[in-house]
Amino acid sequence: MSSLSSHWLPMLTVLLLLLHTSHAWGFECPKQCECHNLRDPNRVSTSMAARCRVNDSMARYNFSVFSPRYTTVLVLQCQGKALTPVNHMFRDLFYLEELVFKDCRFNTIPDYTLAGLTNLKNFSIFGADRLTFTPRLFQKLMNLQNLEIIRSGFQSVPANFLCHSTRIRSLIFSDNEIFTLRDLKNLCLVNATLLGQIIRLDLSYNNIKEITEDFDAMFTGIEMVNFVGNQIETIVNNSCSELYDLTVLDLSRNRIKEFPLDFLEYSDNLMQLGLSHNPISRLFPVFSSLSNLRIFEAEHTHLDNSIWSNLNEKPQLESLNLAHCRLSLINKSVMNKLTSLKRLNLHSNSISRLSPNVFSSNRQLEVLILTNNSLIHLDENSLHGLTGLRHLDLSYNRLSAIHIDAFHDLINVEKLDMSYNELQEIPNSIHPLNRVQELYFEGNQIRRVYKDFFKGMDSVNRIVLAKNLIHVVDANSFARCLNLHILDLSDNNITSVHEDAFEGLKQLIGVSLAHNSIRNIGTALWKQINLSQVHLQNNLIEEIMASNFPDSIKFLNISHNRIRVMRPFTFSNKDTLVEVDLRSNRISRLTKDAISVSHRVRAIPDVYLMDNPFRCDCNLVWLKQLADVRPRKRNGLPYIPDLDDLECQSNNTSWLPTGRIYHISESDFLCKYLDECAADCICCHFDMCDCKSICPKMCNCYRSFDRRSNFIDCTNSSLNDSRFLPSNATKIFLSGNRLGSLSKHSFLRQREMLVVLYLNRSHITDVQNGTFMTLIKLRELYMHDNMLSVLTRETFQGLAGLEVLTLNNNMISYIAPGMFLQIPRLKTFDLSGNGLHTLDPSFMAISSFESISLRGNPWLCKCPLVMALQEMYITHPEVIPHSEEVLCDHEEVINSSVSQFTFYHMFDYDVQLYCLNVTTSGNYSAQPSPVIEMKVLLALAIFSAVFITLMVAIISVICYREELKVWLFTQYGWRVGDDWAKLDDSNRKYDVFVAYTSKNAMFVEHELAPRLERRDPPYRVCLTYRDYDVDISYAQNTINSINNSKRTLMLVSNDFFCTEWFRYDFQINNHDVLKALSDRLIVVLMEKIDKKKLNCDLMFYSRSKKYLKYHDARFWDKLYYMLPKVRGLPLIPQTPESVVSAGELRDQCCNNIAFSKTSLESGYEEINFVRKNVYPNSDQNLYMAPVSQTNCK
Start and end of every TIR domain (predicted)? Predict the structure, then answer.
């Protein structure tokens, strides 16, 4: 029995600890935050890290919602405006170990902001603005170890502000405005030993110009120093001589030219030294004795070959960077002593030759970079001994000859880069590289690729041969590369690709043949079963089809070619297709089948079509229809991201559409035809068939995609007879012909379909009566620039629907009375440039005028005409354009020209002077002052309209005042006549308490509560299943919730009348509380309720008979209006949708934050925030209003 107990005791202990931990997490992560579980081996229970987004004053955020005992890391990421911390804002988080402010842009921190954080170890500020603070801020931070102030405009160090932080170890003041190191003495003036315990100092990217003489005296225990990106020119003597514990020093990107003699004299433990981007030409004397140095960075300096003598005694050196220096050779004797070297970078020097066996002792060298030197050839032993080399970069040299055994020892090389040399073929010396994975021969002069070039190189997965002189890709050129994944042949002169060029490459996933001269890709790519990416842009391809590309294709770039034809179903079997780029080709006609995609694709592919010369014809109307489909549908067509910007062009005909497809009407997409007959026509074999269209010679005919529009363009065709035009024409252009006289037979065939007719510039001299009798649907008639002289009453007979008529620039001198009665719907009428003296008064009977052009006629100043036109001009001045050019005269001169007139402006003509007491016979009478009378009538009309509008508005406000209140609140946030505002709700914990039954539980938990708690600012909602105390009775919980809530929201359904709310004992025992509830109660009817229950049972709680109805269209607007105004709320809890690692938290928020090992570095596990896992044995009914079905009738 005792052995059994001892066996179960550890497991029981673990279970108790897990139970303790789960109960500690009995809260929900605030809405604006992300919470992450941390596990520290030094703690018995788990701890938590949180990242919160702050977008309002920090005074309104209450961080006490976190569990104080388990919250150890808090990151505050500000959004928008500058936000300043407030005093005591973290007073409840007394176990907090790490605090970060990110992008808050404050310029100061109040003295007591960090009060209570006695366990804080790491404090970071990123993105402040000219930051200043007083020493009192850090007075209680006795356990502070790491302080970071980055990118915050920090200039001066307050005196003694770190004196109380006796455990400080790391100071990071990077990217600020510190000018001198002497300010660091202010960290603690009363205790000089405090600076001596700092082991890490980062002052990178400040404005420091000098390392002062007392630097090593201040930081006696310093181990890591970073001065990168300052303006240091001078290092004073004795400033860095006694840094005994220094291991890392980086002085890169400064202005240092020389070093003092005692620089680093006693820094024997130095392991990393950075001097890059300084104008130094020689090193300091002690450098040669730094025997423990492992990493030396000196790129972009003025060091020359003399540097090799300084490297003579560096057996521990592992990384040497001398790129962009002034070296012309590699010292063989020195390299033989650098036996631990793993990385050597000699990029951009002047090395022209590699001595034999220069690397024979560097068997641990893994990376050798000789880019941009002057190497011409490689001898047999140039690279001898580099058996451990993995990466060799020889690019940007002048290599033209490589010995066949030059790479004999490079048995472990994985990447070889020989780009931009002068190689004319792939060297045979690469054959021993049987482990190479990446080969780069870009920018050479290679002309052909043969099958045996890659013999024995089964492991290669990437070959780059771009920017060479290759003309043809032969069969089986890469057959030996069985594991090849990526092949780049772009920027060559390739004109053809053999159909077996990529035979056997079953692992090939990406091919680039861009920027070549390929005209036909054939089936070379179609055979590759795993090929997913193809780049063919900037070639000469004219046609594509399904057999050009494999069914596995995902990304295809075939832009900037000469594609004119896309065969049907080119992409219909590509089930994995993601994106196709067809921009900048010569596609003028595109059908649906050409770009149709498979119905089996996971997501609708993207197809780009910009910069193609599409024709605006009926074959393209489907593309216009596709532009109107939103959202995207699985209809077998791709998604075209640039569809709204696609343009199409027509031929030289000016009236055909041109522009963006999205803006062109479907009816404007026309197709040209010569002879066409409708599908349902039965008289196609007869010449006079109405449903048959034969385009006349010398004309161009167009039809719309649905054959409802038929345009006949006979402009400037020398026609003299219009009788043989197609009978189903809807728009006819006869401009610029010689029609002479128009008869009744001219348009006899057109009848009911013609809508627009152009007859301008056609030498028409007269129009017989009844010419347009059959054109009952004609809307626009253009007859300007002809030789008409007389218009009879029957000239336009039958055109009752005519809206546009142009007769300008004819020789019309007479219009018969009653002509305007034939065209009562006329809107635009142009009579300018004729010889008219007067008008038939019947034209004033047309009330639909929008534009009347009368200029250029020798009008007589006859009172009826002048007064009628002035009356029209006063009421609608916009109807008569160029009114200042409409002139008249007193004298009637039949054949005179306008230039002989005295030029009275008709609309300035003084009718009171010349037309007083004149009575006209054309329904016009001269009155003493029509202008004054019109103003009086206009004033009366305006007054009446205003009065009626005002009365209607007042009545509407009275009748719909409640709806108006809700609308004003919804639109502008105004609470007009709000009786709820008089209530004193300042001391109540919740904004709203929701009472409901199990019938409405799903609505409350999944819709109502999330809507309220996720508003900005959010509401604090009290829910029965979540916020009731399980240790007291349901009735007492209900009373407590009512007293603690500003409003009570009662969701009433028929079963609600059977709950405790309507039990007699419940109502009697809590009579006072429930009667007072009426002022704060909001009743929502969830379904149709019996009137008896509403008028009797519910009156106990609500004296008002105004209830919200859930099915009301404006239910949510009315509910928000009745809820209290939310101010100064703390962070509102919300269950996180997902939990990510704390490492991701750092990466997403603060890329430069150096979190301490004590808080985040040990390991992580996910936390289940679901309440049923926190209380696994709890009964769900405990959180829901009980319903006693036995009492329901």
Answer: 988-1123
CA nearest to 193, candidates 213, 218, 170: 218
Q: What is the DSSP letter of 53?
A: E
Q: Identify the CATH assignment for 979-1124 out of 3.40.50.10140, 3.40.50.2300, 3.40.50.261, 3.30.1330.60.
A: 3.40.50.10140
What's the first-to-final CA gap in the chain, in angstroms? Answer: 60
Q: 910: burial class by Cβ within 10 Å (0-12, 13-18, 19+)?
A: exposed
Looking at every residue in the chain, the average pLDDT score rounds to 82
Q: How far is CA 456 from CA 437, 471, 1147, in A?
A: 12, 25, 43
The pLDDT tens digits of the residues spanning 141-163 come to 999 999 999 999 999 888 888 99
- What's the rounded Cα separation, in Å, for the pair 338 and 347? 19
**Are the CB atoms for 684 and 677 separated by under 8 Å?**
yes
What is the pTM (predicted TM-score) of this model?
Answer: 0.65
**Angle between the N-to-C axes of helices 863-875 and 930-959, in degrees from 0 to 180, rounded to the nearest 10:** 30
Contact 368, 351 (CB under 8 A): no
Tell me the CATH number for domain 303-424.
3.80.10.10
Please say whether the beta carbons of 568 and 594 come within 8 A.
Answer: yes
Non-local (6+) Cβ contacts of 1173 within 8 A are 22
CB 413 within 8 A of CB 367: no
> Which residue type is seen at 173?
F
- β-pairing, 367-369 vs 472-473, is unpaired
CA angle 493-497-498, nearest 5°?
145
Closest CA to 169 of 202, 139, 215, 140: 202
pLDDT value for 39: 66
d(CA 349, CA 370): 8
The predicted-structure confidence for 554-610, as pLDDT tens digits, reads as follows 999 999 999 999 999 999 999 999 999 999 999 998 988 999 998 888 888 999 999
Helix (H) or strand (E) run with residue 936 in it: helix 930-959
Q: How far apart are CA 508 and CA 530, in angstroms?
A: 6
Residues 913 and 926 sit within 8 Å (Cβ to Cβ): no
Return all residues near 476 (Cβ < 8 A) that are at least 6 apart. 451, 500, 501, 503, 504
Distance between CA atoms of 374 and 393, rounded to whole angstroms?
Answer: 13
Q: Under DSSP, is residue 391 helix (H, G, I), strand (E, B) or coil?
A: strand
664-673 burial, b if ≥16 CB within 10 A, otherwise e?
A: beeebbbbbb
3-class secondary structure per residue, 222-278: CCEEECCCCCCCEECCCCCCCCCCCCEEECCCCCCCCCCCCCCCCCCCCCEEECCCC
CA neighbours closer than 13 Å in the CB half-sphere of residue 380: 1
Residues forming a β-bridge with 814: 790
| Residue 693 contacts residue 701 (beta carbons within 8 Å) | yes
Sorting pLDDT into bands at 50, 70 and 90, what band is 27?
low
Tally of CA atoms within 13 A in the half-sphere of 602 that contains its CB: 5
Strand segments, DSSP code E, in 801-864 are 804-806, 814-815, 828-830, 851-853, 859-860
- Partnered with residue 287 across adjacent β-strands are none
Locate 542 and state its tokens: 């004219």
CA distance 36 to 47: 9
Strand, helix or coil for residue 572? coil
Which of 120, 119, 78, 77 has its CA nearest to residue 99?
120
The string over 117-137, giving b where at least 16 C-beta atoms fall within 10 Å of a residue's C-beta and e elsewhere, is beebbbbbbbbbeebebebeb
